[in-house]
């Protein structure tokens, strides 16, 4: 293990060493090149406003939004480096450089792969190689922003990068790119509408096939199938979160998944799921009862639907995120309910583990002004003492008000 | 946003404030309590060997293995704290404390939830609250290990925890718990065998339903359905990685997922998938051709099968990880092929984004001695200049040799 990893973009496992991949066209980009260029310009404007000369992007959603890169490779260290002039650099594991060549819009001399012995090796860190690459590209003494609070930027990654760039001035730029993503383009909204059609179909399947006593995993199998099949016009991509489908007491907890137990009568089962098309999400939740729901749940349903109406009445450009939270909680309180957690968050392009964009939250203290093109997963849900109810919607802010991106009938799903 | 978050385990959104959940039994644990106690003892022995008095576990796989905690909540900060005497503490978002009460073996006074305004709030970090909790439990001046290179332990989390524990001595304990997981118990092996049955069924479905020109996402829909349905004896859980299913040139890259394009003739499509039961994985890959494969791929198949036989011949307790890598690559070289990336890694219990355990790798330089009960995803795969071939197996080290956990026929899958 003495090799120094300095070969950029090393082709992997080639017979005879030929590397024609670099000469071939990429798979179809999800967006026009002009749109990528506009995104890059927006990010650079934010960088300049924060005094940054380079940005290291580890969030796979941000990497994809900026470059088109798409692959399940975020379990190893990888990044996109944005400077103020040259096109972005894609940097990652050598074998994933092939995936970058297939998916990014930059020319292939901006793609750099590190050697495989650096993968999950406690004796060396790939970020050391990234530091060398950044130095080669003139960022050795730059003001560098990093995504300090991101899943894919570990404490060890930060330590190795910082040690490798001793003359750079490194600061926190968590959320910089995410905020540039807050207002969706028409092309992004078109993808999210397709995701909305997909999740509508997924909920239709639940209402159609769920039966009392059916094993929960068998119902999830149908949900997953419907999600990947998609609709006539839109193939289904994988959502960034798997279906959350708890019943009864397990539905007092919002984030349990499923097992092989039968779906019971007399208690709620909620389904928090999303349709996904080309990595763009439309989450939506519904709650299922076999038999007439207990009165308490009918009251909760009434309260949530009234609060939802209040929010939709308040949602328009110029209103603040916290205004929607206030409209929601004040209505809910009139019905005798309380929800302490945030009532929504921004959604769009995502990779696991979260379909939220981690920018705006619909909660007290968030004074972000709504703008046309913002999209929120609005979360009317209550986790009661013996179960839970979720009736959530993905909501697009339009020029004058707001609209839903999915078309599932409102309210509880009740089957005999 | 002035509230100080000091209420441990705050019940969320209760009508009238009653919290009977704490008094109710948890969902069935995946393992006997004695097994959890043995795991804890093993971790404490490693802690003492490294001079650690407390351990902060952020890896959801490690959290689940130690405590039973199961929920898709790892997109917010959460942890398990292990000291040398008291039972572990579960700490996470307030609403997820309900999920902890449903899934962990510890008593509920060891479950602590933080308030929701700390979620994804750039002005405050929940790790500050964890530092206070740890101080309350006597770890304020302890030798504390953290998982410095983990997806779910960001650079910002480390900074906030370090600042909150100024008198503690914090050091890197990445992999400490993972290494304790290397040798599986009989109960764990039983779950992995069930996962093996599930992945066998998933590959059977691929061979049955795949047709030339079928949209890739429609085939993935069937794969996902089969994976969640599981088998008669085992319900299907979600694998930590979604199906990777590239065709043709996209199969020169190992980690691309799928889209809506038709599955083409004349080029390989590989399927890297896993069966999963109660979070335990059995990955396995196969490669599909419609029509007779080009000679080069038949040669690659022959080489991989010979190399696989060499590895299975060498796999036994006492052999080293690198011995298997050497058996593999020397055989492959005799056939004129080369694979530079590692040829396998340890697998078991996992959450996204990786089904690997991030401990042993089958590669040069890894001198870990094989022991009965270790399980590897053995990765005979070649990414050639115009496509890829993967024929991989999950392999259990037995008392005398090794065996496969899945039962899919070997070699290329060829359909008319």
From TrEMBL, chains A, B:
Does the keyword section mention Hydrolase?
yes
Which InterPro entries does this UniProt record tie to the protein?
Creatin/AminoP/Spt16_N, Creatinase/aminopeptidase-like, Creatinase_N, Pept_M24, Peptidase_M24B
Superkingdom classification of source? Bacteria
Which residues belong to any copy of the Peptidase M24 domain?
A: 191-399
Q: Which is an annotated GO molecular function term of this record?
A: hydrolase activity
Q: Which residues form the Creatinase N-terminal domain?
A: 39-183
**What keywords does the record list, in alphabetical order?**
Hydrolase
In the UniProt record, does the keyword Hydrolase occur?
yes
Which PANTHER family has this protein been placed in?
Answer: AMINOPEPTIDASE (PTHR46112), AMINOPEPTIDASE YPDF (PTHR46112:SF3)
Put simply, this protein is called: Ectoine hydrolase
């Amino acid at each position: 293990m003495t090799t120094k990893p300095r070969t950029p973009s090393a082709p992997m496992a080639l017979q005879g060493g030929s590397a024609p991949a670099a000469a071939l066209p990429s798979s179809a980009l999800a967006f026009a090149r002009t749109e990528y260029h506009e995104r890059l310009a927006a990010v650079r404007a934010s960088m300049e406003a924060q005094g940054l000369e380079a940005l290291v992007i580890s969030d796979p959603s941000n990497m994809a939004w900026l470059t088109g890169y798409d692959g399940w490779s975020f379990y190893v260290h990888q990044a996109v480096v944005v400077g103020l002039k040259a096109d972005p650099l894609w940097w990652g594991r050598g074998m994933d450089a092939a995936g970058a060549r297939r998916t990014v819009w930059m020319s292939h001399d901006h793609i750099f792969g590190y050697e495989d012995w650096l993968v999950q090796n406690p004796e060396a860190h790939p970020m050391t190689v990234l530091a060398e690459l950044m130095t080669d590209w003139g960022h050795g003494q730059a003001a560098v922003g990093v995504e300090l609070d991101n899943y894919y930027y570990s404490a060890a990654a930060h330590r190795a990068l910082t040690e490798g760039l001793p003359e750079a001035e490194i600061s926190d730029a968590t959320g910089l790119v995410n905020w540039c993503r807050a207002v969706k383009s028409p092309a992004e909204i078109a993808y999210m509408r397709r995701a909305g059609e997909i999740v509508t179909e997924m909920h239709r399947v639940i209402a159609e096939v769920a039966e009392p006593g059916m094993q929960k995993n068998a119902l999830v199998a149908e949900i997953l199938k419907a999600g990947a099949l998609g609709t006539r016009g839109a193939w289904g991509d994988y959502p960034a979160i798997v279906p959350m489908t708890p019943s009864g007491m397990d539905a007092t907890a919002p984030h349990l998944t499923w097992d092989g137990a039968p779906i019971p009568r007399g208690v709620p089962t909620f389904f928090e799921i999303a349709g996904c098309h080309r990595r763009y999400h439309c989450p939506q939740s519904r709650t299922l009862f076999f038999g007439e729901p207990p009165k308490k749940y009918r009251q909760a349903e009434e309260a949530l639907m009234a609060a939802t109406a209040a929010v939709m009445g308040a949602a328009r450009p110029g209103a603040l995120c916290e205004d929607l939270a206030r409209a929601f909680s004040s209505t809910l309180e009139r019905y005798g309910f309380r929800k302490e957690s945030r009532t929504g968050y921004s959604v769009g392009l995502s990779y696991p583990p979260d379909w939220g964009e981690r920018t705006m939250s619909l909660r007290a203290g968030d004074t972000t002004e709504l703008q046309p093109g913002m999209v929120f997963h609005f979360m009317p849900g209550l986790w009661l003492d013996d179960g839970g109810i979720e009736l959530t919607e993905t909501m697009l802010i339009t020029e004058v008000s707001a609209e839903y991106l999915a078309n599932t009938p409102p309210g509880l799903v009740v089957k005999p």
